[in-house]
Write a structure and sequence with these properties.
- The chain is of the alpha+beta class.
- It folds into 3 domains: 178 residues, Formiminotransferase, N-terminal subdomain (Formiminotransferase-cyclodeaminase, Chain B, domain 1); 161 residues, Alpha-Beta Plaits; 211 residues, Formiminotetrahydrofolate cyclodeaminase monomer, up-and-down helical bundle (Four Helix Bundle (Hemerythrin (Met), subunit A), Up-down Bundle), CATH 1.20.120.
- The strands form 4 sheets. Strands 1, 2, 3, 4, 5, 6 and 7 form a 7-stranded mixed sheet that branches.
- A hairpin with a 2-residue loop joins strand 10 and strand 11.
- Helix 14 runs antiparallel to helix 15.
- The longest helix is centred in the last third of the chain and has 42 residues.
Length: 573
């Protein structure tokens, strides 16, 4: 039965499993043994994966990131908060970052198949348990806090650890859970649910906290208090009037980091779809220059989504009027260098990008191989990788050739006015290539799942039913993967057609070879669709997908004939 349940777990993880991320901030950044003991309890929790541990000496604070199913993440968070309270003494804590407890803040973040409302409910469960069982003062924040007057972290934490001995006794600051008495050793903790937040520091060529703060006030959404004759201006209600900063969804302060010998603008980006990291960086550069200060680089705290890095790479390439249709690796490299993310310490994408941290190496075993190893693996006595994976790889090569011609055309001397058109084509080719490379391993995984399903026991009626169900699920997967290869490869044919017609004439035959690759990929993948469909019981699904497959194959072959006629005419002999 092990293979059966492994397969079902695979399907659940891909399609249905709820995932949340937890990013607790612990008030210890120097004693690595204390940090290790805290992270050990997280690692020892089942179905939880520790992604990142980011200690800061000057801030005396460590940001930890882990993911998993909600119940298990909440368990890991509880144990980590408990351990931090045992090991950290807040009465002796000093650091540059605002703080109020051994576990200062513990947010839960929805990642997959779970709403913010559901995530907030889990945060409330965690907060109640910590308050009840550990007798620790707990405040809810962001989506977990129904009281909008106290859902902002900076407002809750105002006064910090030292000020909370009085603040906690005020009626309006009674904790949501736990005792209304400040714990001298452990402090108090803020627990909540929020959207994905990027913690990001911009490095300056100054040691002045005042100048760093001035730039922070320039860019942050809250801006600065308006003053006249050195005194705050107040509105009709007696509240300070604010001059808003230039960036929405940005919180920022300036500080001096003795460890680095520089001042930084410490930024929280609370909505990176509206204000992405590259925009924040460029705006800091602009405002710093206006104040006679220079940005020298930046620093990421914790993890960042892949899309944020790719978008940054594209942004800086577009500013140079260069093609954005380059590899994922190259886009990330451009982003790192453009924002100086490696100024203070090496920036390792595999350790800082959340999707890379979640990806297991065995999920991309084939595409990680050298050409020689891949050929040897294919030629071995094992039936996988077979024609399906090879079709996907041939399609990836075809898309790569079209992308190459587009990039050469974008950079061709004398064609400068067309760079954007060719950049767009190259970006489309890169997207096709990336997807087809993913499908190389996915096709072999689909084949292996069928073999696992057929190997299940079938002694009893229940086992037979489970085996049949597993075979059918695996078979459908093995039909859909090569069909996706067909669709993705066919999409690359438009690119190749455009490159044969209008691309760099010196590379027209490269585009022609790409056309032949796409034809082979589509026909090869369709063979796999058809052979796997013979074992699938849902005949309505089979009829539909075969009809669609025949239409794709016919269209690709017709386009190929047309493109090769144009190509042969251009070659001339």
């Amino acid at each position: 039965m092990e293979g059966h349940w492994t397969f079902l777990l695979f399907i659940l993880i891909v399609s249905y499993m709820q995932l949340i991320e937890c990013v607790p901030n612990f008030s210890e950044g120097n004693d690595m043994e204390i940090i290790r003991q805290i992270t050990a309890v997280i690692e020892n929790t089942v179905e939880v994966r520790l992604l990142n541990v980011d200690p800061g000496k000057a801030t005396n604070r460590t940001v930890v990131t882990f993911v998993g199913s909600p119940a298990h993440v909440v368990e890991a968070a509880f144990q980590a908060i408990k351990k931090a309270g045992e090991l950290i003494d807040m009465s002796k804590h000093k650091g540059a970052h605002p703080r109020m407890g051994a576990t200062d803040v513990c947010p839960l973040i929805p990642i997959a198949n779970i709403s913010m409302e559901e995530t907030a409910a889990w945060a409330v469960k965690l907060a109640k348990r910590v308050g009840d069982e550990l007798q620790l003062p707990i405040y809810l924040y962001e989506a977990a806090q129904p009281n909008t007057t106290r859902n902002n972290l900076s407002i809750i934490r105002a006064g910090e650890y030292e000020g909370f001995f009085k603040k906690i006794h005020l009626p309006e600051w009674k904790p949501d859970f736990g005792p209304a008495t400040m714990d001298a050793k452990r402090g108090a903790t803020v627990i909540g649910a929020r959207d994905f937040l990027v913690a990001y520091n911009v490095n300056l060529n100054t040691t002045s906290t005042r100048r760093a703060n001035a730039i922070a006030f320039d860019v942050r959404e809250a801006g600065r208090v308006k003053k006249e004759n050195g005194k705050p201006v107040k509105d009709a209600n007696g509240e300070p009037v604010h001059i808003p900063g230039s960036l929405k969804f940005v919180k920022a302060i300036g500080w001096y980091i003795e460890e680095y010998g520089i001042a930084q603008i410490s930024i929280n980006l609370t909505n990176i779809s509206q204000t992405p990291v590259h925009i924040a960086f460029d705006e800091c550069c602009l405002k710093a220059t206006e104040r006679g200060v220079r940005v020298t680089g930046s620093e990421l705290v914790g993890l960042i989504p892949l899309k944020a890095m790719l978008d940054a790479g594209k942004y800086f390439l577009l500013k140079q009027k260069r093609s954005i249709g380059v590899s994922e690796k190259e886009l990330i490299k451009i982003a790192i260098k453009s924002m100086g993310l490696d100024e203070i310490a090496p920036f390792k994408p595999q350790e800082r990008i959340i999707e890379y941290m979640l990806t297991k190496k065995e999920d991309s075993k084939l595409v990680r191989m050298s050409l020689l190893d891949f050929a040897d693996e294919t030629a071995s006595e094992s039936p996988a990788p077979g024609g399906g994976s090879i079709s996907a790889y041939v399609g990836a090569l075809g898309a790569s050739l079209g992308t190459m011609v587009a990039n050469l055309s974008a950079h061709k001397p004398g064609w400068d006015e067309q760079w954007q058109v060719f950049s767009d084509w190259a970006a489309k080719g890169q997207a096709c290539k990336q997807e087809l490379l993913r499908l190389v391993d996915a096709d072999t995984a689909a084949f292996n799942k069928i073999m696992e399903a057929f190997a299940l026991p079938k002694s009893t009626a229940e086992e037979k039913a489970q085996r049949t169900a597993a075979i059918q699920i695996a078979t459908r997967f093995a039909i859909e993967i090569p069909f996706k290869v067909m669709e993705t490869s066919a999409a690359a044919m438009d690119l190749l057609h455009a490159m044969v017609l209008n691309g760099n004439p010196n590379s027209v035959t490269d585009a022609g070879v790409g056309v032949l690759c796409i034809r082979a990929a589509v026909m090869g993948a369709f063979m796999n669709v058809r052979i796997n469909a013979t074992g699938y019981q849902d005949k309505t699904f089979v009829t539909d997908i075969i009809t669609k497959g025949r239409a794709i194959e016919a269209e690709v072959m017709a386009v190929e004939t047309n493109i090769l006629a144009i190509l042969n005419e251009k070659i001339g002999i």
